[in-house]
Amino acid sequence: MAANKNKGAKSKNPPPKKKQRNHLFTEKKRPTKKDEVFDDVSDGQSEEEQLEEAEDLLDGDEQVSDFDDASDISDDDDALLADDFLQGSDDEDEDRGSGSTSGSGSDSDGTDIEEKSRAIDEQREREEEDAQAEMQLNIKEESDEFRLPTKEELEAEQQRPPDLANLQMRIKDIVRVLSNFKELRQEGNTRKDYVDQLKLDLGSYYGYNEFLIGVLVDMFPVVELMELIEAFEKPRPTCIRANTLRVNIHFSVVVFIFDLCIFRSTIAIISFKMQTRRRDLADTLSKRGVELDQLSKWSKVGLVVYNSHVPIGATPEYLAGFYYIQGASSFLPVMALAPQEKERVVDMAAAPGGKTTYVAALMKNSGLIFANEMKETRLKSLTANLHRMGVTNTIVCNYDGRELPKVLGQNSVDRVLLDAPCSGTGVITKDPSVKTSKSLDDIQKCAHLQKQLILAAIDMVDANSKTGGYIVYSTCSMMVPENEAVIDYALKKRDVKVVPCGLDFGCPGYIRFREHRFHTSLENTRRFYPHVHNMDGFFVAKLKKMSNTKKNLVSSDGSETVEQTQRPEEIHSDEDNKKELEQQKMKKQSPKGKKKSLKVKGLSGNGKVESPPTLKNRDRSENGKVELAATSKKRKRKFPSKEEISKAREEKRKAMRGKKKQPKEDKTGI
Amino acid sequence: MRPLDEKETTAVFEKIFKFTGNNLKNIVENPSHEGPDKEPGRYCFRLHKNKVYYVSDSLVKRATNVARTKLASIGTCVGRFTHGGNFHLTIECLNLLAANAKHKVWLKPTSEMSFLYANHVLKGGLGRITESIAPGDGVVVFSMSDLPLGFGVAAKSTQDCRKLDPNAIVVLHQADIGEYLRMENQHEQIIEE
């Protein structure tokens, strides 16, 4: 009974203490939020009531009640722990008292020590367990699944000025979740939710408009997208191109002066210097305080500028045209074009002349370049650059690119370089306004113009050119509608094929992009990205014109058969000659055949001949009429030239036969 | 675009002759390597919108189908006729002059930039000078590393230069390659306005 009394006393006594403690606890934990403190107090009180009840229930079992206390305590801070120890000892004292009074006469000292040590052990274990639990809790909190902000939070965010640090954190989190979506996703959220939030955040953090960021997200996986966007924020290295037109001249002079001084040693110097032209320019520039290095393996004339004490665009060397400041990406279309000496080349959008001067340098100022530029204001800088770089083989004209085939004549040139006007989404580094100014409408407008231009470019090129017949199409855009879609369109409209660019790096163009399916040969096109190649976003495609015919959608079969008869003409093998002979026979035999062969050679059809009302022929006759109306004069001129051509061919054939006979004779002789 | 008439031809040739002397023959008679033709042609002078172009024959032939209003430049521009009918050489012809120059002046590195900002050549900046320059001769200005920088008219003969005061003008400035930059800047300013 005494024990019971004691217990009753005990159960009555502790609550005020505990209350105090809990007050402390709540106040310590959340000292700032006053409203919540009150709630907590009431909570604490109710908890204590529960505790008391529990203690009453578990009357005899002291250790259990101890557990309860300790578990309560262990959640608390260190200071409170000390408090607990004190209390714990109180309890023990009371226990001992109760034990002794109700005790059955067992040796109390031994059990005392045992109990103590057991209690201490248990406490330690508990502490360890709690520590572990806490550790896990902490870890969980750190790697706690990232939660998407709710609508309310977003609304609240919109009212405040954007918190950049928070945005960046959230972007990182979303990227992390998206890169391991299965494990890190939050229940109930789809991938789309995350992507949408990412678009929003990227848009506001980096200043992109909704459209552009949407397209970029569609094009790249998230991690790559982040690299790309980060790369857009940094400037690309400055590149210069050594001008082989000028540097050559310079060397002849240098050599001459050496001649006067020491005649013997000059010859060695000449050969050495001719090999390392670029090196020499680098030396002269580094004397002026420009730190530079060769651009990379793929370019023999490119140099990259790291640092410069003088303005690189105002050195006497620059003014004398020894080098041109040009982005690394601008080398690519010209290298793909690979113009040969004595060719006729058209640059359809030339200003400010970086690519044109490179083309001229590769052609060593021979041949002929039509440098066209539509904008009159840019003509001045174009001509100035051409003169500065010592280019003498250009005719600068000021047409709309779409009119060029009419002006220069269809099938009249060997190569065309079309660096098409574009949305400029690959050069955000240079012009950040692109981030916000472009919309789907702009892209479509650009794409429309580009499609017209590429057809004009193809029309100008002569498929029968001995050395050329190539078109290079490039843009500084990354949008698929401006790149692959344009090439795909050209493949459908004209008899061209995509050939490898001759650039051994760069990502292949898309064959499949979302809902689009392009021709498989588009793998030969090349895409360049800032985060991969450290140059502006760029696209290069090289086309070879197979025949001078135009494909027509109405009778695609018919046009294909025409091509098949056409194609072999380019290659003068024996079989083709036979075919030609047959064709010539046909010509003599029937007016229909004559008409066909005329058509085949890309000349105007013979309108006088009545055409049977088949699909193929109707189409051709339509063409013929159109061309007849347009070029009735030309037709008259071209007839004699055709005869000349056939004469020339026969002569060739004879020569070929002669050659063929000779080896045979040799063989028989042996 | 049309060939020069007799009066214009004499004006152009006289001007170039001042700089090149008898090397003018080279300029006129050199075979041209431009154009797609296999046989090298000749160069000729053509007038287009007040400007005189020195251009390969085969280029002229192929430029005929470009409308006059749409043709911006062809070959190398050597100079232009002013409204008064005088002929001025422009900086674009520097290449041509430098290759055939009779009278040359080399500048010290310190005075290069001064000349590139359209200043006259002073005695103090003179590095080297060819013999037998008479006042009024055309002179091509080079840097010591043989970069053609521009051209001008000799103010003093070579003999007089020896005993000149360092601040005296030796060559009067006519054109320099700094114009490419200055012209460009003017151009940009126009756009900005």
Give a written overview of the molecule.
The complex is a heterodimer of chains A (670) and B (193). With 670 residues, chain A is of the alpha/beta class. Chain A has 29 helices and 15 strands. In chain A, strands 5, 6, 7, 8, 9, 10, 11, 14 and 15 form a 9-stranded mixed beta sheet that branches. Chain A has a 4-stranded antiparallel beta sheet with strand order 2-3-1-4. A two-stranded antiparallel ribbon of chain A has the order 12-13. In chain A, a hairpin with a 7-residue loop joins strand 2 (290-294) and strand 3. In chain A, helix 1 (2-12) runs antiparallel to helix 5 and helix 8 (164-179) runs antiparallel to helix 10. Chain B is an alpha+beta fold and 193 residues long. Chain B has 2 domains: 2-96, Nuclear Transport Factor 2, Chain: A; 103-180, Archaeosine Trna-guanine Transglycosylase, Chain: A, domain 4. In chain B, the strands form 2 sheets. In chain B, strands 1, 2, 3, 4, 6 and 7 form a 6-stranded antiparallel beta sheet that branches. In chain B, strands 9-13-12-11-8-10 form a 6-stranded mixed beta sheet. In chain B, a hairpin with an 8-residue loop joins strand 2 (31-32) and strand 3. The two termini of chain B are 32 Å apart. Residues 187-193 of chain B have low confidence and may be disordered. Chain A binds chain B through residues 249-250, 253-254, 257, 284, 313-314, 316-317, 319-320, 322, 342-344, 364-368, 373, 377, 379-384, 386-388, 390, 392-399, 407-409, and chain B through 33-36, 38, 55-56, 58-59, 62-63, 65-67, 69-77, 91-92, 95, 99, 112-113, 116, 143, 145-149, 177-178, 180-181, 183-184, 187, 191.
> If you average the pLDDT of chain B, what whole number results?
89
Question: What is the distance, rounded to the nearest whole angstrom, between the alpha carbons of the first and last residues of chain A?
Answer: 138 Å
Helix run count of chain B: 7
Number of strands of chain B: 13
Please identify the oligomeric state.
heterodimer
Largest Cβ-defined interface: A-B, 44 and 44 residues
Structural class of chain B: alpha+beta
Main β sheet profile of chain A: 9 strands, mixed
CATH class of the largest domain in chain B: Alpha Beta
Which residues of chain A sit in consecutive blocks of at least 5 with pLDDT less than 50? 1-47, 57-106, 248-276, 554-581, 587-638, 664-670
CATH topology of the largest domain in chain B: Nuclear Transport Factor 2, Chain: A
Give the proportion of residues in helices of chain B. Answer: 25-40%
